[in-house]
TrEMBL record:
Keyword Lipoprotein: yes
Keyword terms of this UniProt record: Lipoprotein, Signal
Highest taxon above the source species: Bacteria
One Pfam family matching this protein: LolA
Name the UniProt record assigns to this protein: Outer-membrane lipoprotein carrier protein LolA
Amino acid sequence: MTRAPHGSAALRLTRRRGLLLAPVFLAACATGQGTRTAPQAGDTARVEAWLRAARLEDAPFTQTWPNGTTGGGVLTYHAGYLHLHYTAPHVMELVASGSHAVFTDSQTGSETRMGLAHNPLGVLMGNPLTLSGPVTVTDIQKTPGILQISLTRTENPSQGLVTLVFHDVAHELDLREIRILDERQRTLFIRLGAV
């Protein structure tokens, strides 16, 4: 784990990290969707059904920020709600619900509120969640045992790209990774599994 520096440098780094968490919210231009083939439409429907039914409770995760530093904690997700409780590099909380998110940092005592209408996290916050209309599926990749799907906002794809990576075994999906590519082409990774 990376230790945060002390003093004002720590405050600047923590603020930068806080802004880089918002990535779970900001992202880059997506490619056009084109016409979906029947298998792609079927895979989109499977992912949509998984997201609508998901009940992740205190799932361990690790996160890698674009600058290479790491942290982690536990994640809770269900349609319309996301909670990231960080225990490393220090205690932080991100709670997103509906159209807003709040990020708090125990080290600085800061609290940042943000709207989700214009950032990529919003594509995962619908309730019910729909992978059509306001959300566009830009890409689907399949390899044996893996299904990867990229999502963006239909009205403004330059606001962000979220890629979900699932284990796909015996037609059962298991979310393993969330990738967020920001508008500066920086990638943030959230991997589900032990910290």
